[in-house]
Amino acid sequence: MARPTSNGLTKAMQSLRLSSQFSQRSLVPSSRQLTRAYATEAEPETTNTAIQPESIPDLSVQAAPEIDFSTSFLRNPARIVPASPSYFSGSPRFVDHVLHLESLQARYAALPQLPAGEAPRMAWFKLKQFREYVGEAVPVKKYKSLVKILQRLNRIQTEMVPGEVRTVLDSFLRPGNPYAVVRETPELDENGKARAKGKRKESKAVVHLVEGEGEILVNGKSLVEAFPRVHDRESALWALRTTQRMDKYNAWVTVRGGGVTGQTEAVTLAIARALMVHEPGLKPLLRRAGVITVDARRVERKKPGHVKARKMPAWVKR
Amino acid sequence: MIVRRFGVRQSRQLLALNRRSPISSRFLSTETQIPVDTAQKEAPVSSPNPLHEVVQATQNPRSLAQKQFKKQEQQRSKFNKLGSAVTDSHDPEGLLKNPPRPSDITLELLLASGTHLGHSTSRWNPQNSRYIYGIREGVHIISLDVTAAYLRRAAKVVEEVAARGGIILFAGTRKGQKRSIVRAAELAGAYHIFERWIPGSLTNGQQILGHCATKVVNALDEELPEFKADLADRPSVKPDLVICLNPLENVVLLHECGLHNVPTIGIIDTDADPTRVTYPIPANDDSLRGTNLIAGILGRAGEAGQKRRIEMAREGKTLYKPVTASELRLDPFTGVLPGAEQTKGPKRD
Amino acid sequence: MASAWCWSCLSRLRPTTRAVLPPPSAIPRLTSAPFHSSAVQYAPPLKKKSNSMTQMKYRQGQTLRRKKKKTVERARPPAPGERKALRKRIILSNPNALEVEGMQEISAENIVDARLRGSVLGLPVPMLDQLRAVQAFKPKQGWSIFRRPGAVVRRDTVEMGRLFEKISGEGDAAEKGKVVKKVITGTKGTGKTVHLLQAMSMAFLKKWVVVTIPEARELVSGDTAYVPVEGSNPIQYNQPGATSALLMRTVEANREVLSGLKVSQNHPEINGVKPTSTLEDLAKLGFQDPAVAWPVFKALWTELTATAAAPGMEKDFQPRPPMLVAVDGLAHWMHNSAYRDTDYNLVHPHDLVFVKHFLSLLRNGQAELKNGGMLLYATSTSNNPGVYALEVALDQMTARQAGIKPTSPEYPSAEAYSNADPRVLDLFKPIEGKEPQMELQTLGGLTRDETRGYLEYFARSGLLREPVNENWVGEKWSMSGGGIIGELEKLGRHVRSAAIPTPAAN
User: Fold this and answer.
1) pLDDT under 70: residue ranges of chain B
2) Which domains, from first to last, does chain B contain?
3) Contact residues, chain A to chain C, C-beta under 8 Å
4) Among residues B122, C39, C219, C367, which one has the fewest Cβ atoms lying within 10 Å of its Cβ?
5) Is ipTM beyond 0.90?
């Protein structure tokens, strides 16, 4: 049996109701006919008896407050209604969000805006996170339109954003601000060694660059053994070559995955990045040489129904 | 005359100077509160001008943008009253902000709103012949007095349903009907749907609307959170009245309403089937102004009904039979108490 | 003054012609080929292609007329061996290349001159025949791009020159009669074969006897005849053809030395040896009759390694010169040959008498060359069978040279279950305290200075048109994996083609 402590009458009743042990109702003096399930509805005396402690009287427990009869009508349930006016749309929380944001947008449309590119970058919920947030399967397109409104609101002049808008916008941010993390500029370690990575196709290269005489080891082998073709060697060392630093640095390269071209160009990128750690002033030169431009192309996947990524089987009449 | 024209011209220029966009001036109006706010919380007592607080906050402008904005606002307030007052003009926002009441229905209003324009005669549905006044330039003209009568009847229905605590659903899935639908639902304390009606929302409600939250309210529409636990495993809520602004596109909705015996109100143009809805309103359903007007009137009617219901509830009376706590506790499908044997169930009177 | 009119364009000056002209008729107009496009409008209307014509195209013939395939007259196919000869052809000169001014020739004096490091020394013309005879040149070594053959002097070359002086009994630290055994390794393109060539040229200069096996693989690839040696147990095999070829090479290259030496021992097993005959005559017996090639070779070997004449033959005895034995492609002798025994099992090369002879020379502590000399056994990377046991043995040798004792735990050994060939490991087994010991010489890249000298040689031969400066050399040095000479040669050629000035630039 639920034991009332210093709780109010309502809470006592609530716990009594939640326990839903009707057989225990027999503890209530049976002289009274229990006509209602809820004592609050009509008979306060019943409730008094109901909440009396049965076992050991606890002297520290205070008596329940008096019953306010004037409010009993308001405690009665009258109707079961949907919680949201968008109930019948199937995704009421999402629709409510959209309507709210639209109203905000309309209300603050007159506020001055920032130019398109200058608004602070915000990490809105990813679609998956947003779906978890609202608990509804929101389609991609609809979420995009919502994000559009968010971005419009985000473009209000930063110092004039109303507090209401600010709180609403913040509620759509994903936890942890990914754009707040400032990548620290790589530096030489205590041995004067610069470490950098490069990727190309399926290859990944790590380069340790130190000042030296131009000795280069690739996976523990000499450059010639690693890249038998002169062209590959040239492109791997292009960053050093264009800057005429070939005989000023030693490099220890580890490159994995992919083929020869991929490995070569991964090494190119990694060496160029490591060189920038040593001499940041070379950046424009390297940029012009095209060695710090990341080539993000990867092999396009094969599709079902195609022979390759795009190639279709030859058309046969029958 | 010349002076007046001069004033008009000047004030127009000045207005043009101030107005950033039509939407901004709309919200600068001091008449009512913000139309589109469907958040469930109580609408906050908003200051007449929503930008007022922003302006207040920028009393001591720091940045250049703030200074400019303040200057603009000052200019606006200075020049706002200049120019001639244009009367008897149509304000499209007025239908949304302050829709007319059912008592305001006049034939002039309906005519101005273009509710009398039907479809091409070749597309008519002969069942509508009794609503049709005549033909003009190959287009059927709907009899405005009939429209007014039917609209009044529909408004009465909405008001009575609202007064009896019924759940009213405004459905307008055509482009542009969204704001009027939302506004009408807000006025009438009703529900809205402005995107596609998901087929099966009534016939297969548990699947489609099962996850949508419901609540238990008292007679004054205040939520009773202690009954939250009882709301699990309940059938989805079904509307008691559906108002459909475009019945032609919402065949499924009306069909489901028919299956579930839900009365419907619909705007019936000359090409629509009036038997699809319980309470037809013969009117033009292609004009947004017309549909906005009808939605607004019905919204106002619902508002009146809700007001009446709340007033009665304050006196402790209801026109409907409230759901009782024990009913809430009963299994909604079997009608017995969960976990209790039928014999031990409490007797009800 | 030229007229403003283009006289050929006067056709434009006929605005009225069109109207005057009769309407275009179906009769084809006989006109010359129109130059102006405006004449197109006077062209007769295009004839409509009749359908029947196109159909006729497929109905022209009732019978199948097939063109006979023309038999192409082909040139006479190359004679047997011609292609191989072409492939193996060695061109030592390029008349288009510039003559390098002041280029020194290799001589007995300058082989120890450390000041010449980095310069390219030419090979003297008379020696070329000898070098050709011992097949010191290989195709694809880039001999054909220069005016005359030459080799760069590097640190290893100078050291080797000093050894030659020492063994020949000249100079300050003369050790006449010393035997030096070296296994030469190095990555691809490091100049191992050219190092052997330089050794041979030095040996010729010092009047040594040069015995070479230019391709170790040819002895085990099953290309030459082999016969079991009677009475040998386990059974061993003789290779008369290969032996005879070796004799021929040796005689050809060392004719001058051999013809000056008289037979000093008794050779009862060989017919036709007179006490007055020279060693050249002796060797000639061998390559005239391959059946006796091996006994002749043994006889020649005993003659060359003799320190004193047999009793009764002292009259014309001259001290024998030191010997250079050079073998290229050692690894092929360390794994099974392509020969089969009677049980159709593969024959191990160490069972081939010929191979066994040369390998036993290499063995630690074995001082077979009584008159001193040098044994240079080079591995190859261009045709390398990859023998695990040899790798282990070379690793062990490296460790020994680094001062790691064979008892030390760091001393490399073959992995358990790796099934390393015990005969190979045994061959390279260290034997304490007995000289001479095998040495491992690993060739690496050139130094920067040597690289510079080498690339300058390219420039002076007219192959390079870029200024050879410190920066450029450093770049090439890195690009060639740290001065690997084969790669430098490739780069030199590469630049040559890239640096051809375009005609537009002139």
Assistant:
1) 1-62, 338-349
2) 2-35+48-82 (no CATH), 94-314 (3.40.50.10490)
3) 214-216, 222-225, 230, 233-234, 237, 240-241, 244, 246-247
4) B122
5) no
